[in-house]
Amino acid sequence: MTGQMVGAMMAASSGAGKVAGPIVGTLILVAIVAVPIWLFVRYRKAAWVGVVTDKKITSSVDDDLNKTYNHHLVIKKDGAAKAHDHSVGADTYAAFEVGDGIAKKPGKLGLVKA
Q1: Is the pTM here over 0.85, yes or no?
Q2: What one-character-per-residue DSSP string does 49-114 give?
Q3: Rounded-to-integer distance, Cα 95 and Cα 91, Å
Q4: Which residues pair with 45 in a beta bridge?
């Protein structure tokens, strides 16, 4: 290939990129903004009732040797085949015991006793 042919191919391919680049960038930006909003709205509308079947505390150590504790409630939702692990804050973890009824109400983000 000659330098002239390479220059012609680069000029031809760069013209399409001038239009497609901003369009693709805009679509990616819209997706980055829209997906978290959609997930938040979807979670907020959810409603279910279940029972706490287990409580767990896990810990992890970061590079600076700081220990972080994660609180989990294992919840079996009514009508579900298996239990699911839900990460919760320390206050919510302390408020529930194994065997307690638990519910996620529509329009609320937290868990409440059923």
Answers
A1: no
A2: EEEEEEEEEEEEE-TT--EEEEEEEEEEETT-SS-EEEEE-HHHHHH--TT-EEEE-TT-SSEEE-
A3: 6
A4: none
| Under 8 Å between Cβ of 83 and 64 | no
Q: What is residue 38's three-state secondary structure?
A: helix
Asked if 76 and 50 touch (Cβ cutoff 8 Å), the reply is yes
Structure tokens at 18: 């001038």
Confidence band for 31, pLDDT divided at 50, 70 and 90: very high
**What was the pLDDT predicted at 109?**
83
pLDDT tens-digit map of 34-49: 999 998 888 788 899 9
